């Protein structure tokens, strides 16, 4: 772990990503402290005002402080990302482990079901699920989680299969270790590298998917300020009041960039093939 | 039927790997990795299986260990027939038969400390309480020439030789009766190899172990084994006492193999038999004797008839038409 | 093919050298660490000579060969010393530009590697990969190239050349691939062939075929061979001179005959002893105790073998010995020779 | 393989530059300033950006605005509104009323359907019977529910027999959906969703789904010299940014825009922005059968807590007027609500009412609205803020259109934010939406007195008296507050200055009959 | 090979069957139905019931499914509930647009990504590498619709340019067609490019460490030959996987871009279908997209064997 951080520090790209994400998390956690106003407080006399000392990033069409909303948006967007990816990753881990370890018929059944979900285009699947469940923060997260499950399942499954190629696994079988322990102690820790990389990338994917759902009006519900919601609302006013789009867009772009940079360099750092 | 004097008996063992093909993935052929071999290993004996890559020696070892299900034939462990015990049930018997692998870098789980690697077999088979187990681990690590201080390190902090010591400790800590060593020293440098070989011999005496030693290194095999079986294309070509095999090889393949070892004596004159061509594809072996395509002494009969495996001299078996008149 | 001692002696002592390595050091240079993995290596390979470098893994033998080819991985570089190639005119390889080096590789010096399984591009036919070398270095027509290629395959014992031309590497066995690689290495008639563990991955019967082939070819092609291996048997089988590498340094350098009959360095002695004791069935083998030091430990350890040496003295642990000439054509890097009073070379 | 890749790259780069070059050229010609070439006559093609794909073209079945704006150019009705919202003849030249319950229309002679057949009284009879037939499921069936029979008196004369006197009958006839259609076309196609054969100024030419609908000039249109345009093309462009960009660059000639975009376009020299007060108003609907909204005081408190001016300012950029159940653009019919007590935004009084109703600490409630319309979402958010002041904690639930309609229909939401078209006659605004048997009264609102009032309004033919009835009904409705009536917005149409003779009216935002291009 | 293709095609059946079941029953539990959306707020319960009957929505759900599937089996995807038009011709004409857009986007992304990935891979950990990684990821990081809107606005305001309105097919007028598709493809391509760059970079890196690259260098190959003839071709295999997946994702992911740029593609059809609860349209389109998606996967797998002689499907 320590060694890992040392290597992370030596990789500037990854470090930038890591620090960036840390900042976003801090902002999200400290949102009530940082934000000068409540994110849904409306100053109806001050709609669509440019940045000023009172409103650092200006105000939106309903006279709300964009700075406060961007700060709280970090909370909402991160929450969406974490929980959605949490759902997808956990389900994927379980299915993938079962599928990759036991193979045979179980594997066939799980993978065919995943194929079915995989065959649905992401956005359309999310859209349909949200349409069924009704749009809300929770349902958005569930929908994105379901959409991500097949990807994680496939990844975990193939990682399990490649771990199974290692002799330490044959060795564990030869020693007589119980299948459950083989999965938990020998396989799971060794598939974590690609799994974690996928998680960082999926996090950015989840935030973007939420934004896309917001564009279609099916994402996080107002007045909750997810960046996707802000972005979509401000599209109409972009020309009239560019700051309404500038700040949420910057927030989303930088955050996703950081997740990607981190994931990218984790991939290099954790990939034994690229170790020098 | 089984003789309890033998630690292991293998009778007419076959292990075929199916080749799938066609629209419905039906089996369209077989790779005959192990094709009807019979041998036994006495208690406290070291039997080596030698041969070139693809000859089926590893598959034999792994099938004995029930890492593969045999296609047919019988395997006995200490007189008990294990070939038809389901794998799940066999799990508990695994403490009697252990395995040491070739690659010291991939045979230890990189995410586990040496301590947990050694504890695992004990706890799995409930051979000791956690406290006792910890003591046993300490004893064992010292027996293989490492120190207790090294227990909390991870495998990557060790050199190849040290890792192989850890693997040995892990295999032996459950006090098995039989150990299958699959190319256990092949990946090591000469100076380290001899350390490990010494250790293996020492431990064999101490724990009264039976070894099945699988290797392609004929020098090492000569040093370690009581008896040697020479395999080619899934079949046993010759089996006998080590000294008989090395001093009086009967099978043309064994002779070629032994002559191919580079000599270490600059003054030694050696008759070198250079074999031509490569080992045939095991999914499509030649008719009759599997070695006939490369055999300098092949004749018509070799193509027509598979040679029988006969005891040509006392305890010296060979499968070759030259010795079957 | 019995080894004839007079034949060994014939090739030795040729003053006319193909390759001269002087005081070569190779350095690991990353942001975190900087140390030598190869240090002060001197070698000189005569025309038509078969020269061996023997050493355990991590001894730096492969890095030395890669340094000659200027193919060291990015984190490694030659920090000191020179590598001179004497063909028509002598060239200092460490100072050549990329392009000049490209002209030498595969043409004047060629190399074969350990793993025939992975040394060929899986996506191209044998024909493409074999003739590619000619395309890089000559102006032959396609037809001429094909003829040369088939001829070369014939020479490495592949008679069905036209068939093999059309195959992809995965369709060939290990021995066949290694033959193809040798053909590739020799097709431009290089002055020096570096063989880095060419038979380690092969079965023993195939190893015998390949070593036999290399011996034949070097004689018919006037090519010098630098054989890199961990297997003393292979050295004895093929080479005339040998350098023993340990922990990045040459410990002993002499003729093959002298090395086997009169090893001078305790490491060489130990190595030979442990191999020879393999013959005694089940008796305790002679073994060199301890482990090979890692490059990071090299600094301030005096003689790098001192930690494992049965003869180690106080001075060995603190001070690095020099190279001593123990007899004609025989040098060894050990403080014992100082005691014995042999000449410092 | 590799070489091929490079070639492709090169070709693509080339292609990209050609594209940009071409588009540059097109720019100049698209403006119509290109005097070169022999075609000096300006193409009389009007390109309109349609913000939604038309749902279908059957006038009797499709109320969607994106459809109406198209089929209203293809079909004609018996009568229409003129610019002063007076009923004038269209297919009927004139009409007589032998009694309160009978209308006889004299039809224009020689009017031809676009398929060439002459339109006769039979077609009028067929059309209205189709509207009334249950299997048609026409959205305007209720408008003509009291038409008892239709008689053909001659080729050019048709008689409508009503069950009761109906003051709204003529106004209802002006509705674009009360169109005269050709029987054989219906029979041939099953319905008229994909085809359009009418008697209007434009003929249906083609409909490329999600792309465009093309209408061409009806050469046989009965009014001489009209229409002036040769072709009208409705491009489906759902994205406001795309519409803005297209009107700016002259890719389209006419588009509706939102107030903020309108203010930007007003600065452009090639674009005229026309506005008109719409007949729509935004509202908050309550499920008056469920607690706590079954309590009139609660509803009144919410009305008092609502600052309608702020909604007009924030959501509509200030370009909306506070509205009652009848939109102010209906002129005389609408009462002045600004002075109404419940419109006073008196927080104290609101709190007091809540207290009296038994909710001193307020309550929790969910506001449902359609994500399809940003104005509704914004309105909901403002209400959420405003109601917070009296302790009402609202959560917003945004659903998309399909579900919204369902929710509306079955009143499965407690509070619904929406927008109503109040129609062209107060009868729709008051009876249709709030009579206890009104088709659109989904709120569970039921008041016997009110019912009687609006029933009498329908049959009252005296305009003065009728107005009084409706004034009272409006007062009553505001007092009961089954819905909160919020504001009625302005509508904006941006047109290129090459478009001549375009004026939008509240009852017809897209009157293009006399439009031409220069 | 043929056996392999045949087997894969057979395996499509359960997948597509699964897709059909999932989509069919999911749609049925979405609140609201086509009748309600057609009649809007002018709906009366009687009118609604009539319409529902017209659409067969009053039948038991499994019967509806069997009817639909029965039709699909015989190539009859049914008729749109909304327009009464046959669906299949509509789907295929719209698919052509979405497919063209997808391919164009993919193409743009390759042009951007593959050279960048190669450069980054060769100059690993250099400033160039850093720059390339950040730039390529920027494309991924911007939500499509934001980039599209900004692009439209900037082009209109500062260059007085907007893409031509009204879609024109490629074969009617290729230049106009490409003009219409260029911007949306650019937006989609930019967002795809990041992943392709990343994959190119890491597979180039991986390939460059393989033994045979050293062999090729030892043969005296110029760097250009090493990279383009050997490394890139080997790297193409994992890149192809990504590309295949992306084409699949794009096929369904163009919804937003189609809406913004007013392209009458398949995505819009599905979206409107969902919004209007036009079940038959959604079912048919999704099944169609799923079919194309799995076919693309199959084609990618077959391409592997073309690129890589080691892969022979039996």
UniProtKB/TrEMBL annotation, chain A:
GO terms for cellular component: plasma membrane. The chain crosses the membrane at residues 12-35, 78-102, 114-134, 140-156, 195-220, 240-263. Residues 74-263 form the ABC transmembrane type-1 domain. It is a multi-pass membrane protein. The keyword Membrane applies. InterPro entries: BP-dependent_transpt_permease, MetI-like, MetI-like_sf, OppC_N. Signal peptide: none annotated. It comes from Exobacillus caeni. This is ABC transporter permease. The lineage of its organism: Bacteria, Bacillati, Bacillota, Bacilli, Bacillales. Keywords: Cell membrane, Membrane, Transmembrane, Transmembrane helix, Transport. The keyword Nucleotide-binding does not apply. It is found in: Cell membrane. It holds the Pfam family BPD_transp_1. GO terms for biological process: transmembrane transport. Gene3D superfamilies: MetI-like. Belongs to the binding-protein-dependent transport system permease family.
Automatic annotation (TrEMBL), chain B:
It comes from the Bacteria. One of its GO terms (molecular function) is ATP hydrolysis activity. InterPro entries: AAA+_ATPase (IPR003593), ABC_transp_ATP-bind (IPR050319), ABC_transporter-like_ATP-bd (IPR003439), ABC_transporter-like_CS (IPR017871), Oligopep_ABC_C (IPR013563), P-loop_NTPase (IPR027417). GO terms for biological process: peptide transport; transmembrane transport. Residues 8-258 form the ABC transporter domain. Belongs to the ABC transporter superfamily. This is Dipeptide ABC transporter ATP-binding protein.
TrEMBL record, chain E:
GO terms for biological process: transmembrane transport. Its main location: membrane. GO terms for cellular component: plasma membrane. InterPro entries: BPD_transp_1_N (IPR045621), MetI-like (IPR000515), MetI-like_sf (IPR035906). CDD domains: TM_PBP2 (cd06261). It is a multi-pass membrane protein. It is found in: Cell membrane. Residues 95-304 form the ABC transmembrane type-1 domain. The chain crosses the membrane at residues 9-30, 101-122, 134-158, 178-196, 239-261, 281-304. Pfam families: BPD_transp_1, BPD_transp_1_N. Gene3D superfamilies: MetI-like. Keywords: Cell membrane, Membrane, Transmembrane, Transmembrane helix, Transport. Belongs to the binding-protein-dependent transport system permease family. This is ABC transporter permease. It comes from Exobacillus caeni.
């Amino acid at each position: 772990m320590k060694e890992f951080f040392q290597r992370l520090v030596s990789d500037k790209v990854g470090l930038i990503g890591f620090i960036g994400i840390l900042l976003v998390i801090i902002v999200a956690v400290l949102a009530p402290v940082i934000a000068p106003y409540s994110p849904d407080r409306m100053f109806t006399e001050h709609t669509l005002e440019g940045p000023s000392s009172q409103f650092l990033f200006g105000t939106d069409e309903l006279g709300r402080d964009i700075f406060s909303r961007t700060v709280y948006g970090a909370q909402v967007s991160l929450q969406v990302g974490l929980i959605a990816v949490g759902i997808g990753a956990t389900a994927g881990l379980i299915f993938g482990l079962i599928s990759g370890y036991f193979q045979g018929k179980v594997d066939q059944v799980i993978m065919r079901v995943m194929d079915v979900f995989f065959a649905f285009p992401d956005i359309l699947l999310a859209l349909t699920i949200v349409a069924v469940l009704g749009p809300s923060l929770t349902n958005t997260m569930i929908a994105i989680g379901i959409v991500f499950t097949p990807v994680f399942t496939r990844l975990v499954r193939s990682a399990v299969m490649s771990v199974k190629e290692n002799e330490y696994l044959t060795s564990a079988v030869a020693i007589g270790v119980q299948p459950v322990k083989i999965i938990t102690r020998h396989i799971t820790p060794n598939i974590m590298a690609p799994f974690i990389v996928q998680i960082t990338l999926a996090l950015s994917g989840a935030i973007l998917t939420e934004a896309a759902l917001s564009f279609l009006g099916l994402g996080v519900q107002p007045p909750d300020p997810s960046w996707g919601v802000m972005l979509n609302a401000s599209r109409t006013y972009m020309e009239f009041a560019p700051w309404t789009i500038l700040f949420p867009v910057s927030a989303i772009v930088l955050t996703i960039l950081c997740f990607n940079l981190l994931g990218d360099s984790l991939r290099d750092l954790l990939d034994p093939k690229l170790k020098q | 039927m089984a003789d309890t004097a033998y630690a292991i008996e293998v009778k007419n063992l076959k292990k075929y790997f199916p080749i799938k093909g066609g629209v419905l993935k039906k089996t369209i052929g077989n790779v005959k990795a192990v094709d009807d071999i019979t041998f036994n290993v006495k208690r406290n004996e070291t039997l080596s299986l030698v041969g070139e890559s693809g000859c089926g020696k590893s598959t034999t070892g792994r099938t004995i260990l029930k890492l593969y299900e045999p296609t047919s034939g019988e395997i006995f462990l200490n007189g008990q027939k294990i070939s038809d015990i389901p794998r799940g049930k066999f799990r508990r018997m695994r403490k009697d038969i252990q395995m040491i692998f070739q690659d010291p870098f991939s045979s230890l789980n990189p995410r586990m400390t040496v301590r947990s690697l050694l504890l695992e077999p004990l706890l799995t088979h409930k051979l000791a309480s956690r406290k006792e187990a910890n003591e046993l681990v300490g004893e064992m690590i010292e027996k293989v020439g490492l120190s207790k201080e090294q227990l909390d390190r991870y495998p990557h902090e060790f050199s190849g030789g040290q890792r192989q010591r850890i693997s040995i400790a892990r295999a032996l800590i459950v006090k098995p009766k039989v150990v299958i060593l699959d190319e256990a020293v092949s990946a090591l440098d000469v100076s380290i190899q001899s350390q490990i070989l010494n250790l293996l011999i020492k431990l064999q005496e101490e724990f009264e172990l039976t070894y099945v030693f699988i290797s392609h290194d004929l020098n090492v095999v000569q040093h370690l084994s009581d008896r040697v079986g020479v395999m080619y294309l899934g079949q046993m070509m010759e089996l006998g006492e080590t000294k008989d095999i090395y001093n009086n090889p009967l099978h043309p393949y064994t002779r070629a193999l032994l002559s191919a070892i580079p000599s270490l004596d600059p003054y030694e004159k050696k008759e070198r038999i250079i074999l031509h061509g490569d080992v045939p594809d095991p999914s499509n072996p030649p008719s009759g004797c599997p070695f006939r395509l490369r055999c300098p002494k092949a004749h018509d009969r070799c193509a027509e008839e598979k040679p029988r495996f006969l005891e040509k001299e006392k305890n010296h078996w060979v499968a070759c038409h030259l010795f079957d008149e | 093919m019995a080894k004839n001692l007079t034949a060994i002696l014939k090739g030795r002592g040729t003053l006319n050298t193909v390759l001269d390595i002087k005081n070569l050091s190779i350095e690991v240079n990353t942001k975190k660490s900087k140390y030598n993995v190869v240090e002060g290596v001197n070698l000189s390979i005569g025309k038509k000579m078969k020269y061996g470098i023997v050493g355990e893994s991590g001894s730096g033998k492969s890095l030395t060969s890669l340094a000659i080819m200027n193919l060291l991985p990015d984190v490694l570089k030659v920090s000191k010393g020179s590598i001179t190639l004497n063909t028509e005119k002598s060239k200092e390889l460490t100072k050549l530009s990329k392009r000049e080096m490209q002209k030498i590789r595969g043409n004047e010096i060629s190399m074969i590697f350990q793993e025939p399984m992975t040394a060929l591009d899986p996506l191209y036919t044998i024909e493409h990969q074999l003739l590619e070398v000619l395309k890089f270095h000559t102006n032959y027509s396609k037809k001429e190239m094909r003829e040369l290629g088939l001829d070369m395959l014939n020479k490495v014992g592949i008679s069905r050349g036209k068939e093999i031309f059309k195959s992809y590497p995965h369709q060939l066995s290990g021995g066949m691939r290694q033959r193809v690689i040798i053909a590739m290495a020799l097709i431009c008639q290089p002055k020096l062939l570096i063989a880095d563990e060419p038979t380690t991955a092969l079965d023993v019967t195939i190893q015998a075929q390949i070593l036999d082939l290399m011996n034949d070819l070097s004689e018919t092609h006037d090519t010098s061979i630098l054989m890199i291996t961990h297997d003393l048997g292979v050295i004895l089988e093929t080479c005339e001179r040998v350098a023993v590498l340990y922990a990045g340094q040459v410990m002993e350098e002499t003729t093959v005959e002298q090395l086997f009959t009169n090893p001078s360095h305790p490491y060489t002695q130990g190595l030979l002893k442990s191999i020879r004791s393999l013959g005694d069935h089940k008796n305790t083998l002679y073994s060199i105790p301890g482990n090979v030091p890692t490059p990071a430990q090299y600094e301030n350890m005096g003689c790098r073998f001192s930690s494992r040496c049965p003869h180690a003295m106080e001075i060995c642990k603190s001070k690095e010995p020099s190279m001593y000439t123990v007899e004609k054509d025989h040098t060894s890097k050990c403080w014992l020779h100082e005691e014995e009073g042999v000449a410092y070379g | 393989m590799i070489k091929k890749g490079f070639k492709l790259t090169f070709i693509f780069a080339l292609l990209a530059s050609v594209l940009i070059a071409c588009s540059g050229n097109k720019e100049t010609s698209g403006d119509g300033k290109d005097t070169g070439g022999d075609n000096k006559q300006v193409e009389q093609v009007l390109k309109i950006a349609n913000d939604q794909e038309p749902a279908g073209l059957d006038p009797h079945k499709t109320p969607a605005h994106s459809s109406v704006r198209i089929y209203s150019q293809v079909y004609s009705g018996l009568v229409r509104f003129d610019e002063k919202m007076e009923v004038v003849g269209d297919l009927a030249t004139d009409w007589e009323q032998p009694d309160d319950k009978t209308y006889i229309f004299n039809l224009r002679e020689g009017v031809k359907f676009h398929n060439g057949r002459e339109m006769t009284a039979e077609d009028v009879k067929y059309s209205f019977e189709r509207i009334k037939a249950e299997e048609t499921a026409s959205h305007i069936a209720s408008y003509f529910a009291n038409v008892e029979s239709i008689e053909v008196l001659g080729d050019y004369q048709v008689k409508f027999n009503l069950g009761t006197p109906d003051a709204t009958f003529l106004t209802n006839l002006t509705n674009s959906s009360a169109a005269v259609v050709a029987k054989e076309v219906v029979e041939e196609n099953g319905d008229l969703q994909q085809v359009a054969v009418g008697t209007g100024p434009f003929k249906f030419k083609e409909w490329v789904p999600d792309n465009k609908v093309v209408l061409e000039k009806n050469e046989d249109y009965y009014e001489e010299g009209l229409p002036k345009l040769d072709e009208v093309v409705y491009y489906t462009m759902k994205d406001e940014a795309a519409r803005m960009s297209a009107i700016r660059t002259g890719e389209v000639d006419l588009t509706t825009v939102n107030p903020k975009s309108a203010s930007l376009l007003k600065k452009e020299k090639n674009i005229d922005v026309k506005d008109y007060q719409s007949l729509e108003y935004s509202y908050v609907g309550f499920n008056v059968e469920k607690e706590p909204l079954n309590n009139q005081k609660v509803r009144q408190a919410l009305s008092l807590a609502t600052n309608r001016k702020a909604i007009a300012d924030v959501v509509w950029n200030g370009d909306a007027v506070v509205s009652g159940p009848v939109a102010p653009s209906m002129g005389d019919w609408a009462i002045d609500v600004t002075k109404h007590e419940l419109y006073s935004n008196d927080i104290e009084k609101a709190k007091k009412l809540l207290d009296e109703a038994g909710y001193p600490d307020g309550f929790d409630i969910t506001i449902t609205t359609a994500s399809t319309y940003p104005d509704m979402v914004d309105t909901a958010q403002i209400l959420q803020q405003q109601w917070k002041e009296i302790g009402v904690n609202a959560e917003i639930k945004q659903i998309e259109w399909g579900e919204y309609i369902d929710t509306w229909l079955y009143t499965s939401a407690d509070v619904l934010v929406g927008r109503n078209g109040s129609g062209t006659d107060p009868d729709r605004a008051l009876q249709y939406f709030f009579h206890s048997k009104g088709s659109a009264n989904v709120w569970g609102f039921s008041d016997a007195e009110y019912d009687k009032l609006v029933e009498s309004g329908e049959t009252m033919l005296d305009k003065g008296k009728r107005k009084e009835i409706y004034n009272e009904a409006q007062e009553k409705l505001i007092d009961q507050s089954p819905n909160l009536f919020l504001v009625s917005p302005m509508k904006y149409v941006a047109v290129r200055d090459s478009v001549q003779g375009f004026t939008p009216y509240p009852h017809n935002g897209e009157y293009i009959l006399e439009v031409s291009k220069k | 090979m043929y056996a392999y293709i045949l087997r894969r095609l057979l395996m499509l059946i359960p997948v597509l069957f699964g897709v059909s079941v999932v989509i069919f029953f999911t749609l049925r539990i979405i609140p609201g139905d086509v009748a309600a959306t057609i009649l809007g707020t002018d709906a009366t319960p009687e009118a609604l019931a009539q319409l529902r009957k017209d659409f067969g929505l009053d039948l038991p759900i499994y019967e509806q499914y069997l009817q639909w599937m029965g039709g699909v089996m015989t190539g009859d995807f049914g008729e749109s509930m909304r327009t009464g038009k046959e669906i299949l011709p509509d789907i295929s004409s719209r698919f052509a647009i979405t497919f063209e857009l997808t391919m164009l986007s993919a193409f743009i992304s390759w042009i951007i990504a593959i050279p960048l990935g190669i450069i980054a891979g060769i100059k690993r950990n250099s400033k160039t590498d850093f720059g390339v990684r950040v730039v390529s990821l920027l494309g991924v990081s911007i939500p499509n619709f934001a980039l599209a809107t900004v692009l439209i606005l900037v082009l209109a305001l500062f260059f007085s340019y907007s893409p031509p309105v009204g879609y024109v097919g490629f074969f009617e007028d290729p230049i106009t067609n490409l003009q219409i598709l260029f911007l949306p493809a650019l937006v989609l391509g930019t967002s795809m490019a990041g992943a392709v760059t990343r994959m190119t970079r890491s597979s180039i890196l991986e390939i460059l460490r393989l033994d045979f690259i050293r062999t090729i260098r030892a043969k005296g190959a110029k760097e250009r030959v090493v990279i383009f003839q050997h490394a890139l071709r080997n790297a193409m295999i994992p890149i192809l996987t990504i590309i295949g997946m992306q084409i699949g994702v794009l096929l369904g992911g163009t919804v937003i871009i189609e809406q913004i740029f007013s392209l009458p593609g398949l995505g819009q059809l599905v979206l409107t279908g969902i919004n209007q609860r036009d079940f038959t349209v959604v079912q048919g389109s999704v099944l169609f997209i799923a079919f194309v998606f799995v076919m693309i996967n199959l084609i990618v797998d077959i391409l592997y064997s073309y690129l890589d002689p080691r892969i022979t499907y039996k």
